[in-house]
Design a protein that fits this description.
By secondary structure, this protein is mainly beta. The protein has one helix and 13 strands. A hairpin with a 4-residue loop joins strand 3 and strand 4. It holds the Pfam family Aldose_epim. It comes from Rhodopirellula maiorica SM1. One of its GO terms (molecular function) is carbohydrate binding.
């Protein structure tokens, strides 16, 4: 069950953050500071908007997204957990797991010393405890911590992703480096394993890429 807006407002009184009912009546936090604006829903701990001051929105949202209990929000930053894509042992299980279709608890909201604001949300799924911190400033920071519950009787495996959808004005100006020689699974071409370039929807595996110091302005002004 989602907490009320009044409950959140009384418990978390933070400059630059206020709570309201968003699409579908789902509760969200709205962030408005001199550095940025943004929003995050308790449903799925889903960030649906981030925009630095003077810049264009960073995240893409689907106009066809459902905003309802038990449904996944489309676009923004969905949290995939405890599996990515379809569950191998149960094709009827929800795609990308339960984290993005359940209501998270807001654990903390605070103004940081550097001028950013942070919200921390948590949820328990199966034998796992998740803690997710989103930091809104001149850039958007996200940190997901997964721990195995003390009640777990044996080790457990999981898959996770912050499946971010970026709003891109010109795809020809976007560069991804460091994966040129890696094999991948091409979902557009029947899950074939290959290496190539062009239009693809791929799942990379066995990679420890060196992250380059490379920046592309997705929204040139």
């Amino acid at each position: 069950m989602q907490p009320s807006v009044d409950q959140l407002a009384s418990q978390f009184s933070v400059t630059g953050i206020h709570f309201t009912e968003g699409n579908g009546g789902l509760v969200k936090a709205i962030i408005e500071t001199d550095r940025c604006e943004g929003e995050i829903y308790l449903h799925g701990a889903h960030i649906t908007h981030f925009q630095p001051r003077g810049k264009s929105p960073v995240l893409w949202m689907s106009e066809k997204s459902a905003f309802a209990e038990g449904k996944a929000i489309r676009g923004g930053v969905p949290i995939c957990f405890p599996w990515f894509g379809p569950k191998a042992s149960d094709p009827d299980a929800p795609g990308h797991g339960y984290a993005r279709i359940r209501t998270w608890d807001l654990l903390a909201a605070e103004n940081n010393d550097d001028g950013d604001v942070s919200l921390t949300l948590g949820i328990a799924i199966d034998d796992f405890e998740l803690k997710y911190t989103a930091t809104f400033g001149r850039s958007l920071g996200m940190s997901l911590r997964v721990t195995l519950s003390d009640q777990a009787s044996e080790p457990a495996s999981f898959e996770e992703a912050l499946h971010t959808y970026l709003a891109v004005e010109d795809i020809h100006q976007v560069v991804v480096e460091g994966l040129e020689s890696a094999g991948y699974i091409d979902k557009v071409d029947g899950m074939k394993q290959k290496t190539s370039n062009g239009r693809i929807d791929k799942v990379q595996w066995r990679m420890r890429p060196r992250l380059p110091q490379h920046h592309v302005d997705l929204h040139p002004t």
